[in-house]
Design a protein that fits this description.
CATH architecture: 3-Layer(aba) Sandwich
Number of strands: 7
Number of domains: 1
CATH topology: Rossmann fold
Helix content: 25-40%
Distance between the termini: 29 Å
CATH class: Alpha Beta
Bound molecules: glycinamide ribonucleotide
Order of helices and strands: HEHEHEHEHEHEEH
Length: 198
């Protein structure tokens, strides 16, 4: 650890699955284009494949399994306690597929960031790619936003746009959007930590 490392903002990344956005963030840190330290990767699912990548990258990992809690409030409390152990400057939701309580969001107010696969405020919630196709959208994309208690709401930090092609299926469109997400998320975090977004 060099002197610079200690001064970098700390981030904790929350995942639920393959974690390709988490991987793009870790890779941006590795190639020095994102000045943060990834302190931990936490999953709500023990089988999230992204955990293997994080471990191999030498990042501390943890699992808070939502199935082990009787209520959303208890799960969120355990998750918040775990995150607090790392005192992060930002908490990054990267394909974290749990709805969070208002208490959790308020606890991390201003520090909680999400990526959502649509051009918000369009298509909040699930199945965004199919819904964009069904609505006849010519353009679709992804948004990085600051999390507020309302689902997929909150100030947008940065968006990426892609065309919707005539023969797109939800999966071809999702792949086009995901490619952009991998550039968008590290760049949005970079802007947040260097203070270009308030
Ligand atoms: C990403 O497309 C992300 O935008 C989306 O889940 C995928 C996770 O992929 N997030 C949401 O839908 C949140 N509501 P990843 O695990 O490979 O990063």
């Amino acid at each position: 650890m060099d002197d610079n490392t200690a001064k970098k903002p700390a981030i904790v990344i929350l995942i639920s699955g393959r974690g390709s956005n988490m991987i793009s963030i870790v890779e941006a840190v590795k190639n020095n284009s994102l000045p943060v330290t990834v302190t931990a990767v936490i999953s709500n699912r023990p089988d999230a494949s992204g955990l293997d990548f994080a471990q191999q990258a030498g990042i501390e990992t943890a699992v808070i399994d939502h199935k082990e809690f009787e209520s959303r409030e208890q799960f969120d409390q355990a998750l918040a306690d775990k995150i607090d152990n790392y005192s992060p400057d930002l908490v990054i939701l990267a394909g974290f597929m749990r709805i969070l309580t208002a208490e959790f969001v308020e606890h991390f107010a201003g520090k909680l960031i999400n990526i959502h696969p649509s051009l918000l405020p369009k298509f909040k919630g699930l199945n965004t790619h199919q819904r964009a196709i069904d609505a006849g959208e010519k353009e679709h994309g992804a948004s990085v936003h600051i999390v507020t208690p309302e689902l997929d709401d909150g100030p947008v930090v940065l968006q990426a746009r892609v065309p919707v092609l005539a023969d797109d299926t939800a999966s071809t469109l999702a792949a086009r959007v995901l490619e952009q997400e991998h550039k968008l998320y590290p760049e949005a975090i970079r802007r947040l930590v260097i203070g270009h977004v308030t």
